[in-house]
Design brief:
Elements: H1 3-8, H2 15-22, H3 26-33, H4 41-54, H5 60-67, E1 72-77, H6 83-98, E2 102-107, H7 112-124, E3 129-132, H8 141-148, E4 153-156, E5 166-170, H9 172-185, E6 190-196, H10 201-215, E7 221-222, E8 226-228, H11 232-244, E9 251-254, H12 257-269, E10 279-284, H13 287-291, E11 297-300, H14 303-318, E12 327-330, E13 333-336, E14 346-348
Parallel strand pairs: 1-2, 1-3, 3-4, 4-5, 5-12, 6-7, 6-8, 6-9, 9-10, 10-11
Antiparallel strand pairs: 11-13, 13-14
Helix pairs in contact: 2-3, 2-4, 3-4, 6-14, 9-10, 11-12
Length: 349
């Protein structure tokens, strides 16, 4: 490499360079830049001026070693390809940014082994806390318990049985109740529930709530539910089964918007009109729900509020809060669109 090329490479400015330029000791420069109060006004002004002039950037690794913190928060999700999880990640990152924390994201891809490996890696990298959407309602517990011995954890959207920790999610019971009441007002007498098979707490909660809500609405009957996974493919498979069994109902309540997208597509393929022949509802409020044909009635989750609350609880734990675990269920909103009514869009409280 030529001398000219070497001269063009910027010099890495170190703390000792700032100290020398300011005419103070390295320890004094360190105290000023770390925000310590036991330095003189003159020393602080000199160090900050030198730091700005030299364009000094603190070494985050060295700073983490000194402070015993990394400023990093780990987040593990079951599948970033799920639009709802992607929206949650975006909201969590915004909330962490406001708290001056950085995010490390990992996708377990729905695998318990993958989830365990990624959480272990996060802990080894010394993250200050973890936000986890568990893969399985019972089999994720052991991994979370091991990690909790090292870092605070907040469960988001889903929870693992037997894990005593903070949880933030939507009020699934309220959401499903609003859907059933809406369909009853649309004069739907036969309804089928299509959703996850209950490997996640979300799927289990929505299934159990659906059964209770139907029992409380006079004149509405539920056919046996079709349970599989939160996926477009399962939504399509569910419709094929309903058609083959000649039991296509007046309404299909889907446990997620992703399932509803598959249901909608397959009903179109079989020549059913929506909402004239079958009315459809989803759950989550992903951006694709409004773009569906017809636009999808859905239980909209307040993603920003959920993320803000999860980060707030995690920061409290990272600051040493030892109070009992908190459970926060945030109210959703029913957004009524053309997939379940011919009366146009209405936002229900």
């Amino acid at each position: 490499m030529s001398p000219q090329r070497l001269e063009s490479i910027p010099k890495v400015v170190r703390l000792k360079d700032v100290a020398a330029a300011a005419g103070v000791s390295v320890s004094t420069a360190s105290r000023v830049l770390s925000g310590a109060m036991n330095t003189s006004a003159a020393a602080e002004a000199a160090v900050r001026a030198a730091s700005k002039r030299l364009r000094y950037r603190p070494n985050p690794i060295a700073r983490a070693l000194r402070a015993q913190t990394t400023g990093l928060t780990g987040m593990v999700v079951p599948g970033i390809g799920n639009p709802f999880f992607a929206e949650l990640v975006e909201a969590v990152e915004r909330a962490l940014h406001d708290a001056e924390l950085d995010l490390i994201l990992a996708d377990s891809m729905g695998s318990l082994e993958g989830e365990a490996r990624r959480i272990e890696t996060m802990v080894d990298r010394k993250v200050d806390g973890l936000i986890v959407i568990p893969t399985h309602q019972s089999e994720s517990t052991e991994t979370l318990l091991r990690a909790q011995a090292s870092v605070p954890i907040v469960q988001l959207d889903r929870q693992a049985d037997g894990f005593q920790g903070d949880f933030v999610g939507v009020d699934n019971q309220l959401g499903i109740q609003m859907v059933i009441e809406h369909l009853a007002h649309q004069d739907c007498k036969r309804i089928v529930f299509v959703s996850d098979a209950g490997v996640s707490s979300t799927g289990r909660s929505r299934l159990e709530t659906f059964a209770r809500a139907i029992d409380n609405v006079e004149g509405v009957l539920a056919d046996p539910p079709l349970l599989g996974s939160f996926s477009v493919d399962f939504g399509r498979e569910a419709v094929r089964r309903l058609v083959a069994e000649r039991r296509v109902p007046q309404a299909i309540v889907c446990g997620s918007d992703i399932v509803a997208l598959g249901v909608t597509r397959e009903l179109h393929e079989h020549g059913f009109g929506i909402p004239d022949d079958v009315r459809i509802t989803g759950f989550d409020g992903i951006v694709f729900a409004e773009l569906c044909d017809p636009p999808l009635t859905t239980v909209e989750q307040p993603v920003a509020s959920i993320a803000d609350e999860a980060v707030r609880l995690l920061v409290m734990r990272m600051d040493g809060d030892t109070s009992p675990p908190r459970r926060s269920e945030i109210a959703p909103k029913l957004v009524i669109r053309e997939s379940s009514t011919t009366k146009g869009r209405v936002d229900a409280p």
